[in-house]
Specification:
2 copies of one chain form a homodimer. By secondary structure, chain A is of the alpha+beta class. Helix content of chain A is 35%, strand content 18%. In chain A, strand 4, helix 4 and strand 5 form a beta-alpha-beta unit. In chain A, helix 1 runs parallel beside helix 2 and helix 15 crosses helix 20. Chain A is globular.
Chain lengths: 666, 666
């Protein structure tokens, strides 16, 4: 403990207090090597005492420890799991707030049980978000501060928009939100996992379809149009896409920690410089980025890099998703902030990327088909199959596929009541055996060099109930309605969300999640735009254009009973229609995913002739595209399963047609 | 001219220049009686010279004359047609900008021809909005101002949001937008029509269903919830609705010029005090507003009235649609601005209003049926029927109906190529004969004491082409899809817009207007919310709830050839469905409009069985509701026409079903 005390005194003397809006230069990330010598784990008591001591030095009464990193990443590296270090909670989303006398952790319903098990209630109060009577973070802060108190944040770990919002809320009650130069958890965290230093992977033209120099040239066109001199790129997948590089710093997302500043003349890359070896330098040359165009600098120099351009009077463009640290580094009159222009470029795949996505989905389809066939023969046999062991088997089938790199997320392998939990993923605590008595939902995906996949199928290995079949069929009707929609260029995602829900709404049903999310090409499984959601205010919910890719994933969930979701990745393509209103172009979708939809769960009486035709056409294509791969992979059992699973469904005759539900009282 | 000169000097001495954000008190509207003595019409030369002389006194280089009134009304009284006085242009929408050396009028494509005919090009440049190369008002201003110039506006005639926007645009180029206390046109306008002074009409409980005191009590609940002390109401229909009074100050809209300030204790009504006679005072008492609750003050005292509350430190609530004059009268820290809370209350009709709307639509249906029957027998006969004479005949049939007050807008009576012009209304210049060789579109409505109507039917009196029938049937499919939709409470209008367009999108067709607008109960034919549009950012496009009323009006327009629109007024009602997701309630629509849809224009092969059933059910109801009225009105010819027009359509047999258009490449 003595060492820690001395350390605190030494650091306190160096502390620079940043008032909101100030500029922090030379932020050090993990460079206090001399202070890292004692890596003996600290007790919760010590951790919180040390943080509170630092809080007093900073004159703050509350300190916010969010579960995000400096790049607004979806998955958080171990190095950035500060909230986990201070709370012991290992879930993926939560916010901790430490005051001088208390501490509280907010997490959503996915994690209520897990957080209860993991946190020590003598130090932490669990705030179960979504339950009645649970205060929001804002409310709790306002109740626990003394007059005129200050609240501290790490400006790298809070979005500029949220900093502004929270700052206003606090100011209205006479409090003050301030940005601290150092992260207090980092100071205390003596056994912090280092950032990964694995080599970067150059991605060739055969996968990217566009040289980095050409991507950067397009970005510069946008800068020119906006009257900006430079763009600061904070999202990891945007840096990776722009430079045609991939990494392994974050689970499931093939990215690496970096910032970039693109000007009309230079490309400044801020990352671990050790990884920019001769291979990467050669890659830059191949990509048209000749020395001295690319300037590689240390990750921690980003604010200094911005400041050089600020001091030269340049106008800098930022994304609306950037951190407060980057935002505050640029004076308002030199700052432009917009929905990320790089995200919008990245969202529209080029021909090479689109072809890669299609090929990756066919191989991925082969893996999923082999898994579904394997389940059919294995479940109910001598070997016990569980949610976890099933997911492992699917992983194994995927890793046999060419160009496989990794999974794209933890599989939602969910049986029976677990399938009704939208964001479920199995753990040893919850792992259920998969049997012939219930619904099984498998939502999974992988990273291949040529594309990212995400597919959900729902099956009954035994006999489904009539209600399960009705729900499945209504989900399928929405899924087919979206997939076959013809729509004008720049339609909003709400259009597709409406089509996907209509058949459920017809009988008063619905689902509580979005209908579709964009997806990267060997990048994040969730990327935006596009976004197919009912929230008309979402900025990602706008302007669908050709060669965007999205998931199409309506569902239905009967709590405690069963869950249904059908999910394909669809590509926006030109529609072949007889007219062209205002010359704006008609679009439709092409489903990249090729995995049979279980016929046993379909109530054909609820389908229209057009829907049956559409489904039969799809199954014919699944058979044609996936069949040969199964034979190549010598899985004749899976091949036989595929042939049966893709057999034509008979159109219901007009006589047998159940009367279509008549709604409305027109 | 001498008189005018003297007048100008006198007024100039009194001028108070208001800098943006300042507060103007005691604004005088039309009180300079002594200056009105010479009403000899001035020449355009004199009008512009005098305005320019005033502009120099004010040190402004440009003066904006918009086509709006101080209440953001849809229709503008003659008293407020300042743009018409300065330009001679009589169309309903346009903006004039006068500089020291030039003048330009912006108007949209509806009025390009009319404006060309009406304005004198030696004084005015016509800016044809929507045509390529035509500068926007912003662009034109920026090009015509000298460095540091000031632009003048009447703060009563510009929305606070637009004032802010334009002010920012001008400021970015070093110019300055300023608000002038006096309207320069009013000073010059020596023969200005007076405001109308007809008596007000108290509307009884049998039509309103809620006493004014109860409406005001609900508004006060909202004020309380928002922490506001008072609300300033600027929209005329909101004042009329709140006080259960109607007027005739504006064509088609039964409203009267007034503002209101509602506090927790008082109701301040700012209007022409002469019209608040004993009848109206008795009405206030009947409505639960006992003296001294209601304080009636002169219309021109609104800013003084606001100022009293401002000086007392109260917080005042404004609508986002309020004028800059009201906005600037309240300091930022005492001002709350929201989408109008009164508009949101008014949008949800109570049971009495809803029943009145239904009854009004049945009577209106009888008038329209009589007209359509009359057209069938008259067109092609000895008497020439034209767009104008047809509309007059329809007006006559309407005025025979009980509780009829007036039309609700100028009928769009449009034949052949004219029907392809969305906002067409016939004039003597454009009036076409209605013949058996072309499509006739009639979009019309009326004001009844118990409700407002708006209906469109499209008919072919001869033989329609196959393409016309396909287009009509696709419009009908969208119309039926919206009408029969089941949807969750609080769905956005984009949901309905999508459903209405889908059948057109399927073949690459569409229409260039919104799908639905809210409608008043004996108030404006257009009121918001709701709004069924694709624009997801529209604040009226949110939160549909039970007993809102909207139009349902998809269309298709083939320029120069024909136009199709089918429009009903639909009421949001509870849906009878087996499930209730999250207990939020399922809703659907009830069509209030009861007028047959012409079967001759329907290609039954394109309809599903459900669509045919739905249409037959509707026609059965039309026959049942309208038939008895026709017999009462002794129009047996119209009755026979109705019986035939509402005969059942046969369901296409399964064999004869054309293959449904297969879209998508899934």
């Amino acid at each position: 403990m003595k060492r820690a005390k001395r350390y605190l005194v030494a650091v306190s003397a160096l502390l620079v207090l940043l008032v909101g809006g100030g500029v922090a230069l030379g932020r050090a990330l993990n460079t206090d090597d001399e202070l890292m010598e004692d890596t003996t784990p600290k007790t919760m008591d010590v951790i919180l005492s040390e943080i509170r001591s630092l809080m007093q030095d900073y004159s703050i009464e509350a300190y916010i420890v969010p579960s995000v990193d400096a790049h607004n990443s979806e998955y958080i590296s171990l190095h950035d799991r500060r909230y986990q270090y201070v709370t012991n909670f290992t879930g993926s989303a939560g916010t901790a707030i430490i005051t001088l006398t208390g501490a509280a952790l907010w997490t959503d319903s996915r994690y209520h049980l897990q957080a209860e098990n993991e946190i020590d209630p003598s130090y932490w109060t669990l705030m179960r978000e979504g339950l009645a009577g649970v205060p929001t973070r804002d409310q709790w802060l306002l109740e626990h501060l003394s007059p005129g108190a200050q609240v501290g944040t790490d400006p790298f770990l809070i979005a500029s928009t949220e900093y502004e919002r929270l700052g206003t809320v606090l100011a209205q009650s006479g409090y003050r939100l301030i940005a601290l130069e150092r992260n207090l958890v980092d100071i205390v965290w003596n056994n912090r996992p280092p950032q990964t230093v694995e080599e970067l992977r150059p991605l060739g033209y055969e996968y990217t379809g566009q040289r980095a120099a050409d991507k950067i040239s397009t970005v510069r066109d946008t800068l020119h149009a906006l009257g900006a001199n430079a763009i600061v790129i904070n999202a990891l997948d945007e840096v990776a896409w722009l430079l045609n590089l991939r990494g392994t710093d974050i689970l499931y997302n093939p990215v690496f920690f970096a910032y970039a500043i693109i000007t009309h003349e230079r490309v400044h890359l801020f990352t671990n410089t050790e990884r920019i070896n001769e291979t990467i330098r050669e890659h830059f040359r191949t990509e048209g980025l000749m020395p001295p165009v690319v300037d590689v600098r240390d990750y921690q120099d980003i604010l200094a890099g911005i400041d050089e351009y600020v001091r030269d009077g340049h106008r800098l463009l930022l994304s609306t998703a950037c951190s407060q640290a980057l935002y505050a580094a640029i004076p308002a009159e030199q700052r432009l902030q917009q929905y990320s222009v790089v995200a919008k470029l990245k969202a529209v795949k080029n021909a090479v990327e689109a072809a890669g996505m299609q090929r990756a989905h066919v191989r991925d389809g082969a893996a999923v088909v082999r898994y579904l066939a394997w389940l059919e023969t294995t479940v109910g046999g001598d070997d016990n199959v569980t949610e976890l062991s099933g997911a492992a088997q699917l992983h194994a089938f995927r890793s046999e596929q060419q160009l496989f790199v990794d999974l794209s997320f933890t599989a939602i392998s969910a049986f029976g009541p677990n399938s009704a939990i939208v964001h479920y993923s199995p753990s040893t605590d919850t792992d259920l055996p998969i049997t012939r008595d219930g619904i099984y939902l498998i939502d999974s995906g992988a990273q291949y060099l040529d594309g990212t996949t995400d597919v959900t199928r729902t099956i009954a290995l035994g006999q489904p109930t009539a209600f399960q079949r009705e729900c499945f069929t209504r989900v399928l009707k929405g899924f087919l309605s979206l997939a076959s929609a013809v729509f004008p260029t720049h339609a909003s995602g709400t259009v597709f969300d409406t089509l996907a829900r209509k058949a459920l709404w017809d009988v008063g049903l619905d689902y509580g999640h979005g209908t579709g999310h964009g997806i990267g090409a060997f990048l994040g499984v969730h990327e935006y735009p596009p976004s197919f959601v009912s929230n008309t205010a979402s900025p990602s919910n706008q302007g669908v254009v050709e060669n965007m890719f999205s998931s199409n994933e309506p569902g239905y969930y009967e709590a405690g009973q069963f869950g249904i979701r059908i999910e394909d990745i669809v590509q926006v393509v030109r529609a072949d229609v007889p007219h062209d209103f205002n010359g704006r172009g008609a679009l439709t979708f092409y489903s990249n995913t090729v995995v049979p939809i279980q016929r046993k769960l379909i109530d054909v009486q609820l389908l229209s002739e057009a829907e049956v035709t559409s489904l039969n056409k799809y199954h014919r294509r699944v058979r044609e595209q996936v069949g040969p791969l199964l034979l190549e992979q010598n899985d004749s059992e899976a091949y036989r399963w595929l042939i049966e699973a893709t057999e034509e469904i008979n159109t219901p005759t007009a006589d047998s047609l159940a009367p279509v539900h008549q709604n409305g009282t027109m």
